[in-house]
Amino acid sequence: MSNIYGLIGEKLSHSFSPKIHEAFFEKTGISGKYGLFEVKRELLADAVAGLKALGIKGANVTIPYKTQIIKYLDDISEEAKKIGAVNTLIIQEDRISGANTDYYGFGMMLKKYNIDPAGKTAVVLGTGGASRAVVCYLLDAGARRIVLASRGGKKADSVFQDLEIISYEELRNIKGADILVNCTPVGMYPNVDASPVSKDVISKFGAVVDVIYNPLKTLLLQMAEELNIPAINGIYMLVAQAAKSQEMWHKIAIYDTVIDQVIEEDLKDLLI
After folding, report:
1. Which of 4, 172, 197, 204 has a CA positioned 20 to 30 A from the CA of residue 76?
2. 157 and 181 in one domain?
């Protein structure tokens, strides 16, 4: 019998996770099946208890439960504590531990495309869940300055209280910036004609990263390319964070070449 893994969330019909994880099972020779576990908000505690009762070996967590699920876990990793969110559950006998592999996925993506934040100024668009892992990685990687652009201006999440927070209007006057990271859903399918910032703002940066992967080339990235600025989409981060979950579940190492294979061979028909 295959070991069972899955994704916990509220609405999951468009998730790429089963395709990605079953590709890793095949390529690593691990026997496993990956399902989608849609959970109503009021039943999250029951769902977590049910993972142990059903013998589920590991799980991922997506919106809106990355923060809410923490109180139902036995312990969480150091990076998950800093980020304040969990996206991976490691289930061992009667204990469930939480980790955050978005942190690692973002870092692996930057390394893949030779973007080194050390000593650089990074501007992160958005102060939601995705930006938490990004900011924590940038801090740990030695970024000299991190600026958050928030629609709420100075009223952003308290997790960012020690960072510089500006409005989108103030971005027009930003100077000395190196890396722009979009952690908002602006530009995601089906709203592909939208960009979180203008071409004039993009021109102030040396590299542009969009954590969106559908479409692969958002309007933000299209404009960056027109300006001959390196433009990176979020598909590598998505697959790399899944690989890190697999490593945690199975205590194995998954090489970068395997991540490339999953993207190029197993996801090619899903990506636009």
Report:
1. 4
2. yes
Contact present, 68 and 129 (Cβ < 8 Å): no
Which one of the listed residues 11, 19, 52, 66 is annotated catalytic? Answer: 66
Task: Answer yes or no: is 234 within a domain.
Answer: no
**66 is an active site residue:** yes
Rounded to an integer, what distance in angstroms lies between the CA atom of residue 132 and that of residue 113? 21
The SS3 assignment for 142 reads coil
Q: What's at 49, amino acid-wise?
A: A
Give the residue from 14, 12, 13, 33 showing the smallest Cα distance to 22: 33
Tens-digit pLDDT profile for residues 74-98: 999 999 999 999 999 999 988 999 9
What's the predicted TM-score (pTM) here? 0.92
Q: What is the pLDDT of residue 245?
A: 98
Number of structural domains, the chain? 2
